[in-house]
Design brief:
The chain has no helices and 10 strands. With 116 residues, the protein is mainly β.
Length: 116
């Protein structure tokens, strides 16, 4: 069964950094555009960033531009999200998925909590 497993979340002070990882259980993901999404308490899940299969093309939601960087290592079937200058409003559960997302790939996510 193909799975995506997120890790790297935690509690951090505003202005701090975290690096999230998303490990895919199948090499097939190396050919997909992948994305990071997040869901804050009481809000809908939203798109954060995406990266094409080669890692050359990326895009971000405006609220994280200049602070977050998405990358991937296809030799490790892993996608990363480097998050710098974190803000309280970045607090959410972060998920990875293909982009566009497929319902059956949603995992447990990883909690990011930014203290103000």
């Amino acid at each position: 069964q193909v799975q995506l497993v997120e890790s790297g979340g935690g509690l951090v002070q505003a202005g701090g950094s975290l690096r999230l990882s998303c490990a895919a259980s199948a090499r097939a993901f190396s050919s997909y555009t992948m994305g990071w999404f997040r869901q804050a308490p009481g809000k809908d899940r939203e798109f954060v960033a995406r990266i094409n299969w080669s890692g050359i093309t990326t895009s971000y939601v405006d609220s994280v531009k200049g602070r977050f960087t998405i990358s991937r290592d296809n030799t490790k079937n892993t996608v990363y999200l480097q998050m710098n200058s974190l803000k309280f409003e970045d607090t959410a559960v972060y998920y990875c998925n293909t982009h566009p997302p497929r319902d059956y790939y949603w995992g447990q996510g990883t909690q990011v909590t930014v203290s103000s």
